[in-house]
């Protein structure tokens, strides 16, 4: 790989996305050791990169198909890990919502299956509702360190049902589209490869 090709991949937004993957094991260690406050601080710092990677990509004009894929993969690992962290650290808030959580995982799996069938690969969209939910999960894990979030967890899971239903409908109606399409009503065609 020459320097010019490497520079296409080593960008500020890609480094921010990759940092969520690189530092995720630290969160697991802190959670498994039940180190509440250090976990919450690290979770907040690592998670905030999800906001800044997209901002940096737009601001620095460093958007790429690789960056979108890396961001989606980092999001998937971070937010699935968040489900474990909630279960491990705050099971009292999650237990009343277990049925809703099982439905969540079923719809998540179904969205991957539908995208794999209709687009030839599993795709995670970045619709407005999915971005909203990511922010709510992030805040929910942090708030769980301080308050009872049982109702917030239920609300997040229900909003995810709407989000995944929208995502599935996008794949069924439009096939492969730009993963950053904000809603089913404003679907953008898949961008050309750079």
Give a nutshell description of this structure.
The protein has 194 residues and is an all-alpha fold. It is built from ten helices and no strands. The protein is globular.
Summarize the structure in words:
It is a single chain. This protein is mainly α. The chain contains ten helices and no strands. 30% of the residues are buried.
What's the topology here?
Elements: H1 3-9, H2 12-22, H3 24-32, H4 36-47, H5 49-59, H6 65-89, H7 91-94, H8 98-119, H9 128-144, H10 150-174
Helix pairs in contact: 2-5, 2-6, 3-4, 3-6, 4-9, 6-9, 8-10, 9-10
Question: Can you summarize the main beta sheet?
Answer: none
For the record, the count of structural domains works out to: 2
Name the shape in a single word: globular
- The count of DSSP E runs of length 2 or more, i.e. the number of strands, is 0
Secondary-structure class: mainly alpha
- Low-confidence parts, pLDDT < 50 over ≥5 residues? none
The proportion of residues in beta strands is: under 5%
Q: What is the arithmetic mean of pLDDT?
A: 91
> Radius of gyration in whole Å, from Cα?
17 Å
Share of helix, binned: over 70%
| SSE pattern, N- to C-terminal | HHHHHHHHHH
Individual helix count? 10
How far apart the termini lie comes to: 17 Å
């Amino acid at each position: 790989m020459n320097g010019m090709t490497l520079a296409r991949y080593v960008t500020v937004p890609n480094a921010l996305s990759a940092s969520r993957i690189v530092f995720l094991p630290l969160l697991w260690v802190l959670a498994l050791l039940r180190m509440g406050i250090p976990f919450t601080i690290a979770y907040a710092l690592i998670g905030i990169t999800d906001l800044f990677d997209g901002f940096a990509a737009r601001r620095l004009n460093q958007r790429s198909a690789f960056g979108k894929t890396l961001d989606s993969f980092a999001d998937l690992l971070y937010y699935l890990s968040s489900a474990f962290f909630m279960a491990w650290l705050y099971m009292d808030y999650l237990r009343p919502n277990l049925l809703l959580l099982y439905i969540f995982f079923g719809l998540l799996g179904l969205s991957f299956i539908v995208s794999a069938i209709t687009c030839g690969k599993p795709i995670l969209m970045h619709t407005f509702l999915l971005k909203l939910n990511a922010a709510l999960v992030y805040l929910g894990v942090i708030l769980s360190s301080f308050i009872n979030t049982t109702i917030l967890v239920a609300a997040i899971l229900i909003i995810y049902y709407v989000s995944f239903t929208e995502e599935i409908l996008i794949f069924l109606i439009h096939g492969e589209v730009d993963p950053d399409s904000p809603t089913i009503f404003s679907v953008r065609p898949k961008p050309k490869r750079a």
